[in-house]
Amino acid sequence: MVYLTRVEHFNAAHRLFNPGWTRERNEAVFGKCANENWHGHNYELFVTIKGAPDADTGFLFDVKKLSGIIRDHVIEKLDHRNLNMDVDFMQGRMCSTENLAIGIWQQLQPHLPADVHLHCIKLYETPRIYVEYFG
Amino acid sequence: MVYLTRVEHFNAAHRLFNPGWTRERNEAVFGKCANENWHGHNYELFVTIKGAPDADTGFLFDVKKLSGIIRDHVIEKLDHRNLNMDVDFMQGRMCSTENLAIGIWQQLQPHLPADVHLHCIKLYETPRIYVEYFG
Amino acid sequence: MVYLTRVEHFNAAHRLFNPGWTRERNEAVFGKCANENWHGHNYELFVTIKGAPDADTGFLFDVKKLSGIIRDHVIEKLDHRNLNMDVDFMQGRMCSTENLAIGIWQQLQPHLPADVHLHCIKLYETPRIYVEYFG
Amino acid sequence: MVYLTRVEHFNAAHRLFNPGWTRERNEAVFGKCANENWHGHNYELFVTIKGAPDADTGFLFDVKKLSGIIRDHVIEKLDHRNLNMDVDFMQGRMCSTENLAIGIWQQLQPHLPADVHLHCIKLYETPRIYVEYFG
Amino acid sequence: MVYLTRVEHFNAAHRLFNPGWTRERNEAVFGKCANENWHGHNYELFVTIKGAPDADTGFLFDVKKLSGIIRDHVIEKLDHRNLNMDVDFMQGRMCSTENLAIGIWQQLQPHLPADVHLHCIKLYETPRIYVEYFG
Amino acid sequence: MVYLTRVEHFNAAHRLFNPGWTRERNEAVFGKCANENWHGHNYELFVTIKGAPDADTGFLFDVKKLSGIIRDHVIEKLDHRNLNMDVDFMQGRMCSTENLAIGIWQQLQPHLPADVHLHCIKLYETPRIYVEYFG
User: Fold this and answer.
1) ipTM attached to this prediction
2) Where are the domains of chain B?
3) Which fold has domain D2-133?
4) Residue E106 near chain D (CB below 8 Å)
5) Which of A13, A52, B42, E56 has its CB surrounded by the most CB atoms within 10 Å?
6) What is the pLDDT of residues C110-126, one digit of tens each?
């Protein structure tokens, strides 16, 4: 068993805001992150898959194909977007880094071949904050 | 003459949009960066000052004071903000990294002591794009 | 289950020296690290917690609160200190990175809420050496 | 139980090429990576060992000794080499990062003391691609 | 005047070898870098241009266009190549990082618009060695 | 003219303390940096030289020789040392990063060949603070 990780990048706007709460409670809980005019981040996304290397290629999976799958099904939906407004799979969810990592897992998994197992989504929101989700 | 640099960080939303242009022209020129629902970045800000070290302290300038000035006059205005909507010194300017670096220079310079010379504002918009302004 | 990591920073002096050994044996085992006049490092501290995201906030735990707990109970005791002389929880222990990581775990764990589980302390001593402790 | 990681660096040339395939099939599968005149990388190697810290030293294992073992048995064989042509332990294997990580594990393990357990070989091929192998 | 930098990446094989010298002299001067079977690197390329921001766009120059010019005229020729054998503009030159930076400048400059001035080519050969060329 | 930079690393203890001042004034000016039991840093040192590449080697200067000169005359004196107590060229000077960069320049310059010009000493004290000195 070997683990292979590909790192991708996207930029997005978001805010932390619970629509079931008053503005005051949102500001009390989320502080500056509740700014109604949004803020944003450069997200670094680490996608890790696991499996056995193929005898003919030495590859667990072709990293260019992995990169293509991530771009088509995740980056295309998130890059230069507003996470709260523009992203179908985040509708009705709080746009925390925790939920975004879970959402990215759910987007990616159906598009990987049967013999490739998604192991981890690691998502940096800032250089000092990241989340990992293992399914 | 010695040069001292302090690195600070802020997150913000923005969009590239010229209000004097049609939506079509904005999209043709700025592409995804014109998204009307905004996107955002983790900005890394490098502030470089120059001068002679003080004989008693060995300091060109106390880096904690420099950090405080940057935070009070720049980071406070930019962090977790919308550059187009929330930032007084970017009103009426295109929110490019070039103009943001120039704006940060103009914000900082009046607040530095007379014997400390601002040398450079270096601003990373993404890990692969940065701007430098020397006044 | 989701894992959330916060990165913090501190600077400290230390030396590797076993008081039960002769100076010669200390120098033979620890080399330059035994320098009686100390040396020091910029330590990078990664604190990882695990749990389920809250439905109302999307947070496993508010990262600002996590940062505050780390600062109050760990950084405050270590930053700009001498690990051998100034730090209560390292008294009577060798000041290796291994023991420092274990000590930081013991400092932090009692101050986290009951539903937040400390998962890992990762501590960089230099950019090329780090230790991980999982309790 | 504590985990200690040492990071080392080497540069090498390689190509991805299956000698049992035609040139056309190699190019179809490996693209630019099959270039018959080679290409190369700066590899970053993370070696993680696990065990209990020694009471007298505070060390899981002396990191300078670990570095020396890695250099003698791995870096010496790989640095400034052609992975396909110059490296005994890669003969007859595809020179993928997956296989190189497995080969490095096999090289290192016999040279570690009995009470030190090799935990992980993590190998960056580029800043955006890495492999992990846990034995 | 503002300076804008775009960072690009390529991987390549090379060797340091003066064909006018004996093998012994090449090995004496270049050591492991003369390995006849090649070695290689992940190169990081920083391209800096200077000029005045445009009033309508806020851009010194569209960074996507800059990236496209670098890719078409530099990366396409260097990525996954052998610098000594495959690269037209390095024929007859020693493949040092110094000469490669000069060669990249000469490749790029004719393809930039008249009002954009190439300021610096900065090229990392390893994380600890880089060259800058200002024309 | 080409510029070549080599990056080296050292760890050291220091404190900021003016012996001509009272303890109270030292603490008022230097805060935690005046801790009488010292603190320390991982310093990153960037040494930049300038000149013309040699026609036969393509080198401005052999980077391995440059590294050797830096190690012999600078790193050997600073690594795992106490800057205030152990370093001859810092005696009688405040141990600020500004003065340390100037001291390193003075140590290195006499040991470089006549046709190699020292251009810049850049010294990181922490990942967010650095000093540059150009002679």
Assistant:
1) 0.96
2) 2-133
3) Tetrahydropterin Synthase; Chain A (3.30.479)
4) no
5) A13
6) 999 998 999 999 999 99
